[in-house]
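ping. complex inputs:
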Amino acid sequence: MNSPTKSFFAAHALLPDGWRTNVLLQWNDAGTLVAVTPDVRDVPADAMHAAGPVVPGMPNLHSHAFQRAMAGLTEYRANPADSFWSWRELMYRFASRITPDTLGAIARWLYVEMLKAGYTSVCEFHYVHHAADGKRHANPAELAQRVVDAASETGIGMTMLPVLYQYSGFNAQPPRDDQRRFINTAEQFLDLLSALRRARPEHGALRYGVAPHSLRAVSEASLRAVIEGLDALSPGAPVHIHVAEQTAEVDACVAALGARPVQWLLDHFDVSARWCVVHATHVDAKETRALATSGAIAGLCLTTEANLGDGIFPAMDYLDARGAFGIGSDSHIGVDWRAELRLLEYGQRLLRRERNVLASPRTAQVADRLFHGALEGGARATGRAVGALERGARADWIVLDAAHPDIAEKTSDKWLSSVIFCEHGETPVRDVVVGGERVVHDRRHRDEARHYADYRNALAQLLADA
Ligand code: ZN
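pong. complex structure:
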């Protein structure tokens, strides 16, 4: 490796084979790890030193950035049967007020929050494409581009997944007025993706994929067309889709297509490891096994699914069948991978009235199994080389606070359990490095004040218009 390397020394670091001591992490100018060496004796004089244990940064595999600004605004009973669908009405009303500037400001602040939490990559499932009246912007990718720019300005790695949205329901029901900002034909969609890739080409911290919104919002032919179009640009790039979030959607799918959504998808498409099936909450036993076998990633968004009353994914059966999963903060009612993983286990505990349900014979500590699983599946969903401290991966990591009350005085085998299951005020995430750049230092993002001021202005504007 000719390019100059930088180095970082950690007394303790979580490598693919477990906790190791005296680890030297070295990376190049492109932000890629070129060497990860445990048990080093001679630390380079210019190496930075970690203030605590180092773990890989967590990928966030599902985000709708604009929804960050409506967190906390829908926690009241709007009608006698408040549900996902009545929340969606409010969300659409909010989406109708978003402008390119407010979207950029919201996304920048959201990514600051993600970085401070230790998310070092995000998959953005971006569907607000057009102006409020449905007219296309001069640059059809204007809004998506603002989100891509928010990622590069704040320093988070991004997989941008523009959304294809065509219909308001199964059997090609025409879109509603309040969905017109989302709508494209498959052809328009591929033009938008190409324009975006030209304006903001891929690099180590940016990748593109596609997100057909859901089986109710796209046709089978369009789904095929956008995957083929994507393969012409970037073979094997990620495909993300919402599936089986709500029972009403499952019933409508059975009525329209003759099968449950996950089953239908598995029967009609070559669902493989490039697919991220977001939610997959309502799967029967057969679908659970088949989805696990397919290699697809189940995109679990626990705090949002709890907030929207979606239901509980059969995590124990799915993990027993060796299914891959990752986690996402989706509507951003909270932005904390620790809370997502905790709730993944707690849902099962409450359901089964047992403890440590998601442990396995090989990994008795639930936190260890969930952390490693979410890194691996989340990384695959990004389509980027992230999620592990190893040569060839991005130099993305979290430095935990060695002096935090939940970490201090404990041995390394208890650190993940304490970090994930304990919640005692201040976060244990102290510093965050992405692509070799320290973007969070002592719990502060490098541009936190500026991005927060912009966010407040954007929020004030959006709420004033309400
Ligand atoms: Zn979503």
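The mean pLDDT is 96.
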